Amino acid sequence: MTAEATKRPLEPDTIYNEDCLETMSRMPDCSVDLVVTSPPYDGMKSYNGYSFDFENVARELFRIIKEGGVVVWVVGDETRAGDETGTSFRQALYFKEIGFRLFDTMIWHKPNSFNFGSNDCYRQSFEYMFVLTKGKIATRNLIKDVPAKMAGRTVKGARRHVNGSRDTDVPDFVVPQYKRRDNVWDIMVAQERGTGKHPAVFPESLAADHILSWSNPGELVYDPFMGSGTVAKAAKALGRRFIGSEISAEYCRIADERLSKE
Ligand SMILES: C[S@@+](CC[C@H](N)C(=O)[O-])C[C@H]1O[C@@H](n2cnc3c(N)ncnc32)[C@H](O)[C@@H]1O
After folding, report:
1. Cα(33)–Cα(64) distance, rounded to whole angstroms?
2. What are the structural domains of the chain?
3. What is the pLDDT of residue 3?
4. Does 245 sit in the ligand 1 pocket, CB within 6 Å?
5. What 3-state DSSP class applies to 257?
6. Residue 208, ligand 1, Cβ within 6 A
7. Residue 247 alpha carbon to ligand 1 centre in Å
8. Which of 80, 82, 132, 235 would you call most buried, defined as having the most Cβ atoms within 10 angstroms of its Cβ?
9. HSE on the CB side for 240, CA within 13 Å?
10. Longest C-alpha distance within the chain, in Å?
């Protein structure tokens, strides 16, 4: 990367074929609304041999994210000789150490996951989705798509206290048809169309549902590990702007191709 290249101003709706630290070095402080990403972790998969400097990436993410903005960090652990690495926990705690709040530890449950792990333990079927915020969260468009058992029924207001008493001034209300989701999301793993040989593609709905939850139309979404372009594709479809970094030229080509078909 030349000095000239590092001075290039960033264009929205672009994926940069470079190390994400280089892209972020050109981003102003507090300029990104939402980050949705999955870094390479442990030795689980080979991404054409590329790696990253976790602590510097975490600090740069804290610098570029707006006050109230969110970073969704999707990660899991490798098991080596009967011992999980604990990388995910270490990373979550490091994010807290540098100033992020751990707003929620969500789980991506993969009902159809392929068993990469050991046969000695239960089948490995989830990844963490750490939802980190810089200060008080600015946007929470919680998805309400779980049918409520009591839908349509009028129920007594029920603000209850720990000592068992209830407030009497809460009005009755009609239970809406849908309630908010749990923080465990069941999302099938599927090879999304047009993602070629990329080994770890997000399901499009995972990217889309986080973008809907933690950002508004017109806002800027960044993925420092863009891979085959799933976050960019979902951001574009949902009327957000995006920036991405992807170190592999091969994966950038896959991402550009997917986006051109949008
Ligand atoms: C888990 S994959 C992301 C997959 C992506 N969510 C998708 O749906 O295709 C991680 C990606 O990070 C890329 N990568 C690794 N080190 C990087 C770095 N330092 N900067 C930018 N990208 C990097 C890898 O090439 C790989 O494509």
Report:
1. 9
2. 3-142+182-260 (3.40.50.150), 144-180 (no CATH)
3. 44
4. yes
5. helix
6. no
7. 7
8. 235
9. 29
10. 68
Residue 171: CB atoms within 10 A of its CB come to 6
Find the 103 Cα to ligand 1 centroid distance in Å: 24
Structure tokens at 257: 């191709």
Q: What's the pLDDT tens digit per position in 143-195?
A: 999 999 999 999 877 677 888 887 777 788 899 999 999 999 999 987 777 77
Q: Are 171 and 158 in contact (CB under 8 A)?
A: no
- Token couple for 199: 């080994």
**Which atom from ligand 1 is nearest to the alpha carbon of 255?**
9
CA 200 – CA 26 distance, rounded (Å) = 27
18 lines ligand 1 (CB under 6 A): no
Picking from 243, 247, 227, 242, the residue whose alpha carbon sits closest to that of residue 1 is 247
Give the distance, in angstroms, between the CA of residue 114 and the centroid of all CA atoms in the same chain: 21
As a three-state string, the secondary structure of the chain is: CCHHHHCCCCCCCEEECCCHHHHHHCCCCCCEEEEEECCCCCCCCCCCCCCCCHHHHHHHHHHHEEEEEEEEEEECCCEECCEECCHHHHHHHHHHHCCCEEEEEEEEECCCCCCCCCCCCCCCCEEEEEEEECCCCCCCCCCEEEECCCCCCEECCCCECCCCCECCCCCCEECCCEEECCCEEECCCCCCCCCCCCCCCCCHHHHHHHHHHHCCCCCEEEECCCCCCHHHHHHHHCCCEEEEECCCHHHHHHHHHHHHCC
Q: pTM for this structure?
A: 0.91
